[in-house]
Structure prediction request, 208 residues.
Amino acid sequence: MTTADRLNVMPLGEAMFTQRAIRRFRTDPIPADVMQDIMQAAIRAPNGGNNQQWHFIVVQDEEMRRQLGDLYHEAWWAKRADAGIMGPEDIPPGRNSMRSAMRLANEIGDAPVMVLVCATAKGPQAAGSVIPAAQNMLLAARAFGIGGTIATLHPVVEERVHALFSIPDDAQVVYCMPFGYPRGNFGPVTRLPLNEVCSYDRWCAPPD
Ligand SMILES: Cc1cc2nc3c(=O)[nH]c(=O)nc-3n(C[C@H](O)[C@H](O)[C@H](O)COP(=O)(O)O)c2cc1C
Prediction:
């Protein structure tokens, strides 16, 4: 059986329409063969010129996860500080996704796997080329009942993350993605109606 066959446990439509950001995880490990399938899906993604300027570090070791978790926590708060949010009391009411992202910053080290999605060159073009791989991973994970989310670091921790994982200077970490079996449910996402964000043949203002 191939990875593609194993992914057929869930129809694509169901995976796509129930895949949402999962930020709370059970501690159960992800079986090695399942993680391998998720990474096989990652490297099937579109990428610039098919140059495959990417490298994925699947972090499973407990101590490495703990250290990365600490750095992620620092990075998350550094990003908030850049936006003038210095502590939980500054998070505006109603910003539920920010609150849940804050909780992830506290707990990310408990996720059984974190994947550092790296580009093997610096710059926005190289970074952009790994984005489809991240989405392939989320969809493949969803098919196996595993949740995750895209998350980013902050320059304040860059040097230490590079040192911890022996990442070369000319590479960049684009995303730090936790994965695990969810505490909570997959489910539909909340989005603006299609006709407010999509038009045909030319850009149209949304209807009143
Ligand atoms: C480029 C990018 C960066 C993101 N960074 C973070 C992050 O640092 N922390 C986090 O918890 N979620 C992060 N997310 C996840 C988004 O918050 C999430 O996709 C969005 O809220 C929609 O969630 P939903 O699909 O569950 O509705 C990021 C998503 C993207 C695409």
Q: What stands out?
A: The first strand starts at residue 54 and ends at 59.
